[in-house]
Amino acid sequence: MVRRTQTLVVTSVLALVLLVVGLWLPVPFVTLAPGPVTDTLGAVDGTRLITIEGRRTYPTSGRLELTTVEETPRLNLVSALHDWLDSDQAVVPTELIRPRGSSEQQVQQENTQAMLDSQDQATAAALAQLKIEPTGAAVTVGSVPDGSPAADKLATADVLTKVNGVSVTSQEQLRTEIGKVRPGASVTISYHRAGKDESTTIVTRPSPDDPNRAIIGVTTSLKNTYPLTVSIRLSDVGGPSAGLMFAMGIVDLLTPGELTGGKIIAGTGTIDEKGVVGPIGGIQQKVLGARESGATIFLVPAANCTDAKAVERGKAPRLVRVNTLADALSSVEALRTNPAATVPSC
């Protein structure tokens, strides 16, 4: 009887210990919460988010806010349950944020590249909306990974113009000219940055796909060139979801008058060069972030409307459904002149 009692006590203690330990073990979930908002018409750390050179810009007021989501990884069971009970937050499987087999560094690089691409597409969409035609195309640096041969020599948004004195106007030409040297040999890269022509010497390395081919270790894209220069400066934000609000800000700065009418307008959505707006993740947290910032209107990609409407109404901003940049501009214009105007809604 005594032995049985001792066994029961020991078993109970071990079970309790395992339970307590289990509560603090990591679980494969991530918390999504409302992140900070950024005014595309404003400045970050004293630097304007959008600057335009080569064409007249116009003063404006109000705010066009891009919204973000903050992620909290490495949850334990206790914190996951705590966040799950918070209606302002969402607990989702880690695989939705970071696909299995990918590292945090890979995800970060992909998100950075997606943000850069969204800036290019927003510029193209905004200028197309304003009937400003491209004058050509240029090879532009998308990202320079740490440890690459070009690190500390080239930077994001540099326009590459020559390799060893030979002009390049396409990614294929760039690849061909660099490939003319043996891996380990140096190449001279000419580029355009911040209105100045520069050059640098880079020691190549072998390509992971072909040890006999030299590379400089950057990603590039072929960007349209225009009779004006649009620069977007925003760090610490990744992914493509700010595209719509970038485009709205560019259009506002390049057209007379105040697009917002002094209002705080927030929104989200990817955008392509034709101005088509696509869905994003974390819509509910972005609506909540907009509400906290005082926004009265929130531009919602049409495909996100059902989830956006699930947010407790309270003082939530008016949800305006958009399929294209033209839709967004038309609705904002209508609401600027008449707050009671009928516009597409979620």
Biggest sheet details:
6 strands, antiparallel
**Structural class category:** alpha+beta
Domain module tally: 2
Helix content: 25-40%
User: Which percent band covers the strand fraction?
Assistant: 25-35%
Rounded Rg? 25 Å
Number of strands: 22
CATH top level class name of the largest domain? Alpha Beta
State the CATH architecture of the largest domain.
2-Layer Sandwich
Task: Calculate the mean pLDDT score and round it.
Answer: 83
**CATH fold-level topology of the largest domain:** Ribosomal Protein S5, domain 2
Query: How many angstroms does the end-to-end distance come to?
Result: 69 Å
State the helix count.
9
Parts with pLDDT < 50 across at least 5 consecutive residues: 6-10, 12-24
Give the overall shape, derived from the CA principal axes.
globular
